[in-house]
Amino acid sequence: MDDSHAIAPDQLVQRHARPGLSLLAVLHAIQDELGYVPPATVAPLARALNLSRAEVHGVITYYHHFRSEPAAPVTVQLCRAEACRSMGTEALAQHIEAHTGCRFDAEHQHGATVELESVYCLGQCALSPALMLNGTLHAKVTPQKFDAIFAAASKCVEVTA
Predict the structure, then answer these.
(1) Which GO terms describe its molecular function (predicted)?
(2) Deepest of 19, 91, 126, 134, by most Cβ within 10 A of its Cβ?
(3) Which residue has the higher pLDDT, 148 or 156?
(4) By the 8 A CB rule, do 76 and 97 touch?
């Protein structure tokens, strides 16, 4: 998914920055294409949208959704909001850390195969605890359900690697 080396930042911005589109829309389009927003696109985005580099950088860093580097092949985003907490997400988080050998919200290690992120509300309050694994939403997640979906995702990564 990371073909940022083949695409110059100016070309990437030209492809996505259209009149009438907001900075957020353009950032989403870039991230949808590459899986992240390369830091080298900040200056071209600022020029194209008549913003300062600080404004563009501020939006990228303010919203947790935007990445400035590629995600790990297996990315788990666990809801840590109140409804999920009341339904056992903290115990599930401990299980996930033990099962994967990773820590939630740890500094992303380049080349790591698994990344664990805390998020705050996936909109599945009535079906908590909830998580997203590689962008796919899962609800009513138990440790056993996590193990099964994690194994399937890990197997896919091994096959494509």
Answers:
(1) 2 iron, 2 sulfur cluster binding; metal ion binding; oxidoreductase activity
(2) 134
(3) 148
(4) no
Residue 156 assigned as binding residue: no
> What is the amino acid identity at position 86?
S
Task: Show the DSSP H helices in the chain as ranges.
Answer: 9-16, 23-34, 42-49, 53-62, 82-86, 89-100, 143-160
Q: Where are the domains of the chain?
A: 9-62, 74-160
Q: What is the pLDDT of residues 25-55, one digit of tens each?
A: 999 999 999 989 999 999 999 999 999 999 9
Asked whether the beta carbons of 94 and 134 are under 8 A apart, the reply is no
User: Crossing angle for the helix pair 9-16 and 42-49, nearest 10 degrees?
Assistant: 40
pTM: 0.76
Q: Which CATH architecture has domain 74-160?
A: 3-Layer(aba) Sandwich (3.40)
Nearby residues of 152 by Cβ (< 8 Å), 6 or more positions away: none
